[in-house]
């Protein structure tokens, strides 16, 4: 538990009036156990439980003095697992901490070191809620070493630690500061989203329906505010109204909803998109487009930052086009700065997205030329400037210019170099 600074409370209480009390927390007992969850008929299960809120529950099992249930949500790009204690089994007078780890087991004949392992944070038993789901990517789970005969096994290891009050004198101020826990507002809001409790608006995206709360969306997005609240009482959307969302996929809308409720990217985004730039680029693009569409500036800037880290020769044209389309001046400037070297620009010209970028946004090509001219002028290399643009003109000529225009440009640059 995080302790708040004592000084933040000391101004409210006169130090000479402080009494001493006995308080300190220490783990005195730890019990650990594991439960193998074997899922049979995985393909049939996916077909039967379509929808992000449909799950299959395990039998009740006991570990560490508590009874537990595991819910498996098989739909979507990630398999979600919710580990929850049976509420009637919790004694609120005691403090119990729990640590849970998931291990996706390999099939027979494969080394155990190939297991997929996921650790979780330590939390209090009483704080377990619907939002505490743990995700395993579908691609990972469906690897042959994990999925065999249409079944897989995940071992859940649960460690329960009991705390007690140890003897030791500290002030009431320090005691109070220990009672102040970090804010969990985002977790409570995510719980609302997950449970759909009190939801009053629904969105249909592709074949998926999402339930949400108008007041949350309106507070977080000016576009949602105008759409859901309107400018007068006559324009407000009635309860249980369903909105069709066009030109957006369900994964992107789900990730955007999660951000609106939690102010952070969802856990499944971070788990799934760790790797090559090609893997990261597409989801970051889609989220940026969604953020720009609904006026979610912070999400847009986060996506810009992720795209900035992905700038390279292969991705530059796509990222620069996106920056131009959605008014991202800093991302655009970073792209142009990247290609100020003529050799790099020459390589970018050969990529798949360059033709589309120049056709759709010819002004960008002009800005690229200005940047290279400026860089060459700073280095005093006018001949290099002419050679660079002759090379680039030849590269793009089959797609953008007639051959006689290119020849004319070549003759001009050749004469220009002779005259220098």
TrEMBL record:
For the BTB domain, which residue ranges apply?
A: 199-265
| Lineage: superkingdom | Eukaryota
Q: Name one GO biological process term.
A: protein ubiquitination
Q: Kindly give the SMART domains that the UniProt entry links to this protein.
A: BTB (SM00225)
Output the InterPro entries linked to this UniProt entry.
BACK_BPM_SPOP, BPM1-6, BTB/POZ_dom, MATH/TRAF_dom, SKP1/BTB/POZ_sf, TRAF-like
Query: One Pfam family, short name please?
Result: MATH_2
Q: In which pathway does it act?
A: Protein modification; protein ubiquitination
Family the UniProt entry places it in:
Belongs to the Tdpoz family.
Q: What is this protein called?
A: BTB domain-containing protein
* Originating organism: Rhynchospora tenuis
């Amino acid at each position: 538990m995080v302790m708040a600074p004592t000084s933040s409370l000391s101004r409210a209480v006169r130090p000479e009036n402080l009494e001493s009390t006995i308080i300190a927390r220490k783990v005195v007992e730890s019990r650990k156990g594991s439960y193998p969850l074997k899922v049979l008929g995985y393909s049939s299960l996916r077909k039967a439980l379509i929808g992000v809120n449909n799950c299959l529950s395990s039998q009740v099992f006991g570990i560490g003095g508590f009874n537990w249930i595991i819910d498996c949500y098989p739909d979507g790009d990630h398999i979600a697992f919710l580990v929850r204690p049976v509420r009637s089994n919790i004694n609120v007078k005691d403090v119990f901490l729990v640590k849970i780890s998931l291990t996706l087991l390999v099939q027979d004949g494969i080394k155990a070191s190939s297991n997929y392992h996921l650790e979780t944070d330590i939390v209090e038993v009483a704080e377990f809620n619907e939002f505490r789901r743990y995700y395993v990517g579908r691609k990972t789970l469906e690897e042959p070493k994990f999925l065999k005969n249409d079944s897989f096994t995940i071992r859940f290891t649960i460690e329960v630690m009991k705390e007690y009050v140890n003897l030791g004198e500290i002030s009431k101020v320090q005691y109070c500061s220990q009672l102040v826990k970090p804010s969990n507002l985002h977790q409570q809001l995510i719980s609302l989203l997950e449970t759909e409790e009190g939801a009053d608006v629904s969105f249909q995206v592709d074949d998926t329906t999402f339930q949400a709360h108008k007041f949350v969306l309106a507070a977080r997005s000016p576009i949602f505010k105008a759409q859901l609240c309107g400018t007068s009482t006559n324009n407000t959307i009635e309860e249980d109204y369903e909105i069709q969302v066009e030109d957006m996929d369900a994964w992107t809308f789900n990730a955007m909803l999660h951000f609106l409720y939690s102010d952070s990217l969802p856990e499944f985004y971070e788990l799934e998109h760790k790797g090559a730039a090609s893997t990261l680029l597409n989801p970051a693009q889609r989220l940026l487009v969604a953020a720009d569409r609904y006026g979610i500036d912070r999400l847009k800037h986060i996506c810009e930052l992720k795209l900035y880290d992905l700038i390279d020769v292969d991705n530059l044209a796509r990222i620069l086009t996106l920056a131009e389309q959605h008014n991202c001046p800093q991302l655009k400037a970073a792209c142009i700065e990247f290609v100020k070297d003529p050799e790099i620009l020459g390589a970018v010209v050969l990529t798949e997205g360059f033709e589309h970028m120049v056709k759709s946004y010819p002004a960008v090509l002009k800005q690229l030329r200005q940047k290279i001219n400026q860089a060459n002028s700073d280095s005093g290399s006018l001949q290099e400037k002419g050679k660079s643009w002759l090379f680039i003109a030849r590269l793009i000529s089959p797609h953008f210019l007639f051959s006689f225009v290119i020849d004319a440009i070549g003759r001009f640059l050749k004469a220009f170099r002779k005259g220098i």
